[in-house]
Amino acid sequence: MTAPLVDIRAVSHRFGQLAVLKNVSLRIESGSYTILLGPSGSGKTTLLSILGGFVMPSEGKVFIRGEDCTAVPPARRPTTTVFQDYALFPHMSVGGNVGFGLRMQGVDGATRAAKAREALALVGLASAFDKKPHQLSGGQRQRVALARALVIEPAVLLLDEPLGALDLKLRRQMQDELKAIQKRVGTAFIHVTHDQEEAMALADHCVVMNDGRIEDEGPPERVYARPATRFSATFMGESTILSGKVTERGDRTSTVSTPAGPVLVRSALLVGSAVALAIRPEHLVLDGAAGTASLGMAKVGDVVFQGSFKRVLAASVEDPSLQFIAKLPATATVQSGDTVAVSCDTDQIIVLTD
Fold first, then answer.
1. Would you tell me how many other CB atoms lie within 10 Å of the CB of residue 148?
2. Is residue 104 situated within a structural domain?
3. Cβ distance 203 to 34 under 8 Å?
4. 1 in a domain, yes or no?
5. Domain range for residue 248?
6. Are 219 and 262 found together in one domain?
7. From which residue to which does the signal peptide run (predicted)?
8. Most buried one in 112, 126, 140, 342, CB count within 10 A?
9. pLDDT by residue (tens digit) across 24-53?
10. How many domains does the chain have?
11. What is the predicted pLDDT for the residue at 251?
12. Residue 184 lies in a domain
């Protein structure tokens, strides 16, 4: 089996008595776009800092291209980091900023300038070579930081919430550009974010972190459609969660008793075991449909128009503490105060046993 580009082995880290990473192991392949996704305090930024050499792990090893880089300083690693605040030198031209890493490597001025121009052309800023950073927009400065990181041709590019300071429209534009650039250069990108939509837009390898551990990892389509844990199901997109107990088991199905009534699921589960059923908003149906399983009646609370769809919150009539989250077409006529039948396609129910 081919060795991974990055191999993180049983890494733990503590700040004083606070454990921020707990026995994390992760393999990252060449040419991949990996997203480290999680809430504040999950350990994702600390893990990125360990990969970049800015933090030495309390325990464990980090291998890059088969070499033990655990104690190697940042300047000697085959990695470069793009920070959220860009960290550009205000007194230098854009070209000088982009070529700075090459200058530190002893590359001559003519070669530096040529490579800096190539890198700026790659990020769509060929005409900005002689400008100063303050003359550029936030999105343009982010591209300069990206060009500066790519010009030294790292094996791994580390991105620490690089789009966090941008407005929504620009953030989405930069997502498209980041993915396109990554495909063109072929460098492995490892990108930290707490934004689930950003993760799904960019990643081909999504790593969900919580409380210093990896909860789930894999292609974003799998992590979203079939999350491994309850936390992953609720953090990687929204879900309605039905807690229940298995009451009957067939060859390939089981019946689960829930606050919304008995639900048939496409899994053979142990009778008496406690499970949670997760249902994505797009799989909930209001006011019934042929071939769907009933989840009882619910009273509609909030209806929020979000452009291409309406996000609907509705409380179960049988158990008002149970909140359904549905995503309906923008043309749906449902209104706050309506009482509606709730159902779903049983094939789309996610069974969580953690």
1. 27
2. yes
3. yes
4. no
5. 238-352
6. no
7. none
8. 342
9. 999 999 999 999 999 999 999 999 999 999
10. 2
11. 87
12. yes
Query: Poorest-confidence range of 7-16, 194-203, 216-225, 281-290?
Result: 281-290
The residue to which tokens 């026995």 are assigned: 23
Same domain for 156 and 64, yes or no, is: yes
Q: What residues does 315 pair with on adjacent strands?
A: 299, 323
Q: Given this model, what pLDDT does residue 284 score?
A: 92
Q: 163 and 216: one domain?
A: yes
Q: Is the pLDDT of residue 290 over 80?
A: no
Mean pLDDT of the chain: 91
| Structure-token pair, residue 120 | 């700026």
Half-sphere exposure of 322 (CA within 13 A, CB side): 22
User: What pTM does this model have?
Assistant: 0.88
Which of 177, 199, 234 is where one domain is finished? 234
- What CATH number corresponds to the domain at position 24? 3.40.50.300
Q: Is 287 left (phi over 0), alpha (psi -120 to 50) or beta?
A: left
Tens-digit pLDDT profile for residues 60-100: 999 999 999 999 999 899 999 988 777 889 999 999 999 99
Q: Are 292 and 343 in contact (CB under 8 A)?
A: yes
Asked whether the predicted pLDDT for residue 303 surpasses 90, the reply is: yes
* CATH assignment at residue 329: 2.40.50.140
The strand pair at 156-160 and 79-82 is best described as parallel
Residue at 305: amino acid letter: F
**3-state SS record for the chain:** CCCCCEEEEEEEEEECCEEEEEEEEEEECCCCEEEEECCCCCCHHHHHHHHHCCCCCCEEEEEECCEECCCCCHHHCCEEEECCCCCCCCCCCHHHHHCHHHHHCCCCHHHHHHHHHHHHHHCCCHHHCCCCHHHCCHHHHHHHHHHHHHCCCCCEEEEECCCCCCCHHHHHHHHHHHHHHHHHHCCEEEEEECCHHHHHHHCCEEEEEECCEEEEEECHHHHHHCCCCHHHHHHCCCCEEEEEEEEEECCCCEEEEECCEEEEECCCCCCCCEEEEEECHHHEEECCCCCCEEEEEEEEEEEEECCCEEEEEEEECCCCCCEEEEEEECCCCCCCCCEEEEEECHHHCEEECC
pLDDT band at 347 (very low <50, low <70, confident <90, very high): confident
